[in-house]
Amino acid sequence: MNSAPNAPLAPENPALTGIDVASRLPSAVANAPLFKRNSFGFDVQAEWALSITSAAQLQATMDIILAAGWPWRVLGGGSNVILPSFLPGITLLMDIAGQAIQEESADGTLLSVGAGVNWHEFVTWTLDHDLPGLENLALIPGTVGAAPIQNIGAYGLEVGEYIQAVEAFDCATQSMVEMAASQCHFAYRDSIFKANPKRYIITRVDFVLPKAWSPRLHYADLAQAFSEVDQPSPEAIFVAVCRIRNRKLPDPKLIGNAGSFFQNPIVSHAQYEQLLKQFPNLVSYPEAGGQRKLAAGWMIDHCGFKGVRAGSVGVYENQALVLVHYGQGDAKAVLELAKTIQDEVHRTFGIDLLIEPIRY
Ligand SMILES: Cc1cc2nc3c(=O)[nH]c(=O)nc-3n(C[C@H](O)[C@H](O)[C@H](O)COP(=O)(O)OP(=O)(O)OC[C@H]3O[C@@H](n4cnc5c(N)ncnc54)[C@H](O)[C@@H]3O)c2cc1C
């Protein structure tokens, strides 16, 4: 990585003039609706939106944006964001395509994938090419470029395990950088990209899928699905993950949501033991270093919120960790409901729930 860890970012100047944008970024679209680019389905409009289809275009665009001090942000599929009804300045829509096998060795296969590629289509493509490893992460909405941001994870697997390197535009040094996985600081729903918002714009992700593969089935739903199968194939796991997710999670095309709305809190073993005395049915999973990951959905359900509706928003009836939008609502409505839930969980368990999607 050729950048200093805490280099200052260029300040933004909200005094954006339409004439400037139109003349200097002629492909930018004014007053662009983002209804289809936020899975909550809120009625959102970008003052300007610009599709980014290559790293070179991104670099040239960012040089203009940063020099002008225009407000900006980047959006992938919009499945992990809470957007206000108006986004000032420029919204960059990450559309860099392309996926290719770069290298095959006896140990593994190196893949390079454009940041705008749809994540689930990429996982399907790997299995079509006989490259198992990512099947537990099937059906997670969004783009490949956003996957490293919160180190997406599901069913006992996190994407960081398979990432070799990330290519990004570094807004602090205004240059392209390539960061090895060890420099990305991957942790539970976290990374250097999430910790430094608006510093890095990811353009490409390189994955290594090892030749040696074994099924990852320790999460309860998967263990149950394969309780009578000795060695399920990656394809069978892919199908099972899709089936379980379709049963438990609402399809954003039918009902707005951003998946898990809260992170599962991680507590010390001592705090877990204390809670278990009071709540013997508490659901949790072991973590490294003797810590414990508590099931936030169980805690929310215990507080009586599952299926509760508050006007235009509510808590999903099949999974209390998911907040849903029924239509005609906005970010304010969902954040108000979230606050009510956070307060009650804190009152009951003494635990602070953190919101997972990024707020703008
Ligand atoms: C039904 C549903 C189920 C879900 N299940 C899971 C799950 O099981 N596990 C999980 O981890 N997540 C899950 N999510 C959350 C979401 O799918 C992931 O976080 C996904 O990676 C978001 O991708 P996106 O392209 O939609 O990102 P966006 O929502 O567009 O962006 C998210 C954040 O990343 C930034 N960003 C996006 N692209 C880039 C880029 N190229 N460079 C720099 N910054 C960027 C944005 O600025 C924003 O801050 C779920 C969401 C839904 C709706």
Protein traits:
about 25% helix; Uridine Diphospho-n-acetylenolpyruvylglucosamine Reductase, domain 2; Uridine Diphospho-n-acetylenolpyruvylglucosamine Reductase, domain 1; globular; 3 domains; binds flavin-adenine dinucleotide; about 350 residues
Question: Would you kindly provide a written description of the structure presented here, covering whatever features stand out?
Answer:
With 360 residues, this protein is an alpha+beta fold. It has helices at residues 18-24, 55-68, 119-128, 192-195, 220-225, 234-248, 269-278, 296-302, 331-349; strands at residues 29-33, 45-52, 72-75, 81-82, 86-94, 99-104, 108-114, 153-154, 157-158, 163-170, 175-180, 200-210, 256-260, 266-267, 284-286, 292-294, 309-310, 313-315, 322-325, 358-359. The longest helix is centred in the C-terminal third of the chain and has 19 residues, at 331-349. The chain is globular and about 65 Å long. Bound molecules: flavin-adenine dinucleotide. The site of flavin-adenine dinucleotide has 33 residues, from strand 3, strand 8, strand 12 and strand 13.
